[in-house]
Amino acid sequence: MEVLRITGGTSLRGEVAVTGAKNSVLKLMAASLLAPGVTTIANVPDILDVEIMAELLRRLGCDVSHEVALSTIAITVPDRPDHRADYDLVRRMRASICVLGPLLTRTGAADVALPGGDNIGSRGLDMHIDGLRRMGAEVTSDHGYLVAHAGGRLQGARVWLDFPSVGATETLLMAAVLADGETVIDNAAREPEIVDICTMLRTMGANVEGIGTSTLTVIGVEGLRPVQHATVPDRIVAGTWAVAAVMTHGDVTIRHAKAEHLSLALEKLTLAGADVECLPDGFRVAMSGRPRAVDIVTLPYPGFPTDLQPQFIALNSIAEGAALVTENLFEARFRFVQELARLGADVRTDGHHALVRGVPVLSSAPVEATDIRAGAGLALAGLVAEGETTVYGVGHIDRGYAGFVPALRSLGADVRRDEV
Ligand code: EPU
Hints:
The structure is a single chain. The chain has 14 helices and 24 strands. The chain is an alpha/beta fold. It has two domains: 2-18 and 233-419, Enolpyruvate transferase domain (UDP-n-acetylglucosamine1-carboxyvinyl-transferase, Chain); 22-230, Enolpyruvate transferase domain (UDP-n-acetylglucosamine1-carboxyvinyl-transferase, Chain). Strand 20 and strand 21 form a beta hairpin. The longest helix has 13 residues, at 235-247. The protein is elongated and about 65 Å long. The termini are close together. The relative contact order is 0.15. The structure holds uridine-diphosphate-2(N-acetylglucosaminyl) butyric acid (EPU). The site of uridine-diphosphate-2(N-acetylglucosaminyl) butyric acid has 23 residues, from helix 1, helix 5, helix 6 and helix 12.
């Protein structure tokens, strides 16, 4: 097993470049199933989840070639892909569910293992299923699998989502592009990653309107063509480096990032006392002195991203004053505060609220990451804790951050991976 060993106390300085977004590239890979032939995706992060998705596509009959050095992936999709996503892959990565929509609309059937709960909450699929049923699919659960049949082409329908779910929006969008007639998805998610997949689908020949708004209108077409597409930059990775700069009183320039995808998070860092400067291909974050505590409320985009919540709790844990953090998406995301408490953080949770009272200094301890963003939050805390912090569960960080340790080291952090 590998751990991270982080000795706190250095200010992060320099430049770091971000790669494509995990939460986009996995869906772009799934969308390739919609067209036979070779789809090429650029700006692909070198993370474990991309490998799992590549393996899943291979099992569906695709040929996948990942050029890590070039950050590209080429997916050759057969005329008739298989339609079964097995449990051994789905349990390793919930996002495997994103093959459901493309498989169903392309092949008329999909058997996708149910992902079950995970470390950040129960994460239902009801909106995916209800939407597909409205489009004429028959969806049942059988021995741990979602079994969906279209009985011909799916039919366009009007679907109102109870909540702007990222996953449900993507499933229905990908199902609708080859359906018969018009589909309207109301209360759709508007994340930059949704815009990214809509853009790719349009290049493939799909008819999608309302991109970036909460009403997506799709008129199904008979067929789509394979394309080349570059993944949108990872706003959560960029935001993580920005918080690290602020916590360590550093000065970091984050390249290949889009500040406009992080407006609210960067505004919060400014309120905490940081200088944030937008640049043509990224932004610079500099901080002197102790940050001020900032309240956070997580919400669907353009609200504050839940995937930056643990990093901001880490920031608040050493800030001047107290902050109220409200988590509205994943009920179990506060689990990580028990680990943060091992470093001396003062955090009290009650339901979906956390009260974080800043302490002047954290002290190192062994801690365990339970999901990707908890891992990032704990690593950031380790960067400012006195002494050497050991972070267990590094595999979680590897799922979402390409080259986490080299990036931190290039900014001057004292961090290394160790076998235990
Ligand atoms: N929900 C339902 N029913 C559904 C769908 C969602 O109840 O049918 C609930 C979920 O249980 C959750 C909320 O709606 O409470 C939001 O879920 P959403 O569908 O928006 O999230 P997701 O698609 O499962 C993606 C990202 C997450 C990110 C969220 C929110 C991927 C692979 N995952 O998840 O990323 O937090 O959107 O932005 O795109 C991460 O990267 O660490 C991560 C967890």
